[in-house]
Amino acid sequence: NPRPTRAECSDVANAVYDGTDAVMLSGETANGDYFQQAVSFMARTCCEAEQSRNYNQMYHAVRNSIVNKYGKLRVGESVASSAVKASIEVDAKLILVMSDLGKMASYVAKFRPSARIMCLTPTITSARQASGLMAGVDTILV
User: Fold this and answer.
1) Model-level pTM?
2) What are 44-91's pLDDT values in tens digits?
3) Angle at CA 114, nearest 5°, toward 68 and 4?
4) What's the per-residue H, E or C state across 72-120?
5) Which has the least CB within 10 A, 46, 49, 67, 121?
6) Distance (Å, whole) CA 130 – CA 119
7) Pairing verdict, β 94-98 and 137-141
8) How far, CA to CA in Å, does 136 sit from each of 7, 21, 27, 117, 130?
9) Pairing status of strand 116-121 against strand 94-98
10) Percent of the chain topping pLDDT 70
């Protein structure tokens, strides 16, 4: 059947609400006859779920979980936390991060801002890792 079940759509949407970086098809769906339709439907489900995500609530949940686990934020996490909180308050569309190794971009991405993250880095490895592995991060090699 080319249409996913309600449970499959719900699982994908809940993964997005939980702040996951990526979703993937199960082996039987990916190898089935309707894998293209499944990918298309999953992408639409992800986009709709992202539109209804409460970024302020997600920010506080991530921040509180770090503080509860470690007692305090590290210096880089604190700077990133402040940047994300400010971006939520002013409804910023972009957070610009300058980083040699991409660590600051990963700290910002950890707090799941609604704004896109642009990381400027001189390191090609950091640029590849940031764009490919961090949610909402684009890079420019400088």
Assistant:
1) 0.77
2) 999 999 888 888 998 999 999 999 999 999 999 999 999 999 999 999
3) 95
4) CCCHHHHHHHHHHHHHHHHCCCEEEEECCCCHHHHHHHHCCCCCEEEEE
5) 67
6) 8
7) unpaired
8) 26, 9, 26, 6, 9
9) parallel
10) 99
